[in-house]
Amino acid sequence: MGPEITQREGGVCVCAHTDRKWAQTGAASASSWEPLKTSVRRAGHGAGLLQGRGWRAGGGREPLVPTGPRLPRRRRRRRGHEAEAEERVPRLLPGVDRRPPLRTGAARLVQKAELVRLSQTLSLVPRLHWLLVEDAEGPTPLVSGLLAASGLLFTHLVVLTPKAQRLREGEPGWVRPRGVEQRNRALDWLRSGGGAVGGEKDPPPPGTRGVVYFADDDNTYSRELFEEMRWTHGVSVWPVGLVGGLRFEGPRVQDGRVVGFHTAWEPNRPFPVDMAGFAVALSLLLAKPNARFDATAPRGHLESSLLSHLVDPKDLEPRAANCTRVLVWHTRTEKPKMKQEEQLQRQGRGSDPAVEV
């Protein structure tokens, strides 16, 4: 079942979802769009496309800011990621402040760190489109700036999780499905477009060969994983490390076919796989418009709520050397301890809120 199998390789387009309090990345899709080109303009340069990762066609890297003699009494430009964002955000996203003040407690402290780490992993993957869905009422300067500075081909979407679906104070993260609205918003955009607040506005054209992958921003990814998923024809699967209380979870394969799953928790689920352990051909998702994630699915059944509409377990495509290699790890970022910060804030000596962390 699924689209006709061919031998042509697909490209990679990654979509992420992020939340200001408990961000995790959502859908990622691999597509056979043109080799990576973005409409990001370099600081101080005229209009023109950035090709690849900012390298000249003839070799050598172009500067991010104009070169030339330093003007007298002019403050030196700040370097690095934040400087790039400060230069690029006003050009891509008119009306977004360059350096908005950071409201204490407004954002999850590790959100930017996780997204920077993920974006730099994705920058190693050719022909990739990052579709990031933000869990907010509108686009935040932090996420908008990070996307603009990433150099990646991206689309920025926004949808707020309904209050009834949000975690309540003191609830463990596994009580409620997370990222459901954001992943479904990514699927809606891939199918019909509309609503993009930044980056590429239009979805892939009809007939595009690609793969959709749902990623968490705190996971660890080998770039080999994205090469494995390029050849997906329907739904491909692989092991995930450090998940489910095990060293790894994943499909059991015999004679090139999936015959079961190595898992300890509810092994009788229709698809006992982690969100990071599968990818779906874009053509299959477009052919099944009713395939979505179900916010009312029982604990651990969110993946099954989508996959049950797309494929029979016996037709899953094992990747990563017949599911014998771990190329993605379900790592988690430790929540930083802010005891000293809180103490200094009470004394009026807290860290400068204008410094984006």
From TrEMBL:
CDD domains: GlcAT-I (cd00218). Residues 71-80 have a biased composition (Basic residues). Belongs to the glycosyltransferase 43 family. It comes from Odocoileus virginianus. Keywords: Glycoprotein, Golgi apparatus, Manganese, Membrane, Metal-binding, Signal-anchor, Transferase, Transmembrane, Transmembrane helix. Its EC number is 2.4.1.135. Residues 49-87, 334-357 are annotated as: Disordered. InterPro entries: Glyco_trans_43, Nucleotide-diphossugar_trans. This is Galactosylgalactosylxylosylprotein 3-beta-glucuronosyltransferase. It catalyses: 3-O-(beta-D-galactosyl-(1->3)-beta-D-galactosyl-(1->4)-beta-D-xylosyl)-L-seryl-[protein] + UDP-alpha-D-glucuronate = 3-O-(beta-D-GlcA-(1->3)-beta-D-Gal-(1->3)-beta-D-Gal-(1->4)-beta-D-Xyl)-L-seryl-[protein] + UDP + H(+). It is found in: Golgi apparatus membrane; Membrane. It is a single-pass type II membrane protein. Residues 49-61 have a biased composition (Gly residues). Residues 334-344 have a biased composition (Basic and acidic residues). Pathway: Protein modification; protein glycosylation. Its cofactor is Mn(2+). The keyword RNA-binding does not apply. It is an enzyme of class 2 (transferase). It holds the Pfam family Glyco_transf_43.
